[in-house]
Specification:
Blueprint: H1 3-16, E1 41-52, E2 56-69, E3 72-82, E4 88-100, E5 110-120, E6 125-138, E7 141-154, E8 160-171, E9 178-186, E10 189-201, E11 207-217, E12 224-234
């Protein structure tokens, strides 16, 4: 087996032995790539729909981002979720910074950092997240890993540290269609399922990215499926 591939799989295994946990809410979300483009601007929309035997959860994020350096990008999000009475509304706001730590192809793997700060709407509850994103290519295959450390605090939630892991193993079939397998670890949650992504390129730096995935919980019996979809328009 290729030594770089073996080392990367050992890195996956070490992340998987983290005590899995996640802030309250939907576990399945975006798998971040470590890249930032200079002068990049984007609009983003994400939707996550999760069905269990007891409830049907729905979350959405609307964001605008802009790079402020060749390797750093800032993005602002409005977060919406459906409550227990099936009413959908704004539940929070988030600011996110992505930092591309290495140039693409500079080392055997590409590295990036992610920092997030979230304020719950109408409540003095907060969430701070720091994480890493790693991506490595093996021919036409790509492996992307995310590992996060999360701290929650506030008036109506318990102050605590938590961890989260996400992974995507992708086949770069063509630019507009790239199938993948996605893995998520969260609080009492281990999920896996197929995913797809693609990029439609226009003139200049303009492009439209799409992602979709269907994740099933496998760590316990019972129904727990999540459908995720995302659109990004970069310009």
């Amino acid at each position: 087996m290729n030594k770089s591939l073996l080392g990367f799989l050992l890195l996956v295994a070490s992340f998987c032995h983290l005590s899995p946990a996640h802030a309250d809410g939907l576990v399945v979300d975006k798998v971040y790539h470590p890249y930032v483009l200079a002068n990049e601007k984007e609009f983003e929309w994400r939707i996550m729909s999760s069905q269990t035997e007891n409830k049907n959860r729905l979350g959405q994020r609307f964001g605008y981002g802009q790079s402020f350096a060749e390797n750093k990008m800032l993005e602002l999000y409005v977060i919406g979720e459906r409550d227990q009475d099936d009413n959908f509304g704004v539940t929070g706001y988030e600011v996110e910074m992505r930092w591309m730590l290495t140039e693409q192809g500079q080392y055997s793997a590409d590295w990036g950092a992610i920092f997030e700060f979230e304020k719950h709407n109408g409540e003095d509850n907060f969430e701070a997240t720091s994480g890493i994103a790693v991506e490595k290519e093996f021919g036409k295959l790509s492996a992307t890993l995310n590992a996060f450390l999360i701290y929650e605090w506030g008036n109506s939630i318990e102050n605590e540290f938590e961890t989260e892991f996400r992974a995507k193993f992708r086949y770069r079939y063509m630019s507009v269609l790239q199938p993948s397998i996605e893995i998520y670890l969260g609080e009492d949650f281990v999920g896996i399922g197929p995913g797809f992504m693609g990029t439609y390129r226009f003139e200049g730096q303009k492009q439209l990215k799409w992602e979709a995935g269907f994740i099933s919980e496998i760590s316990h019996s019972g129904k727990d499926h999540t459908l995720r979809f995302a659109l990004e328009y970069e310009f």
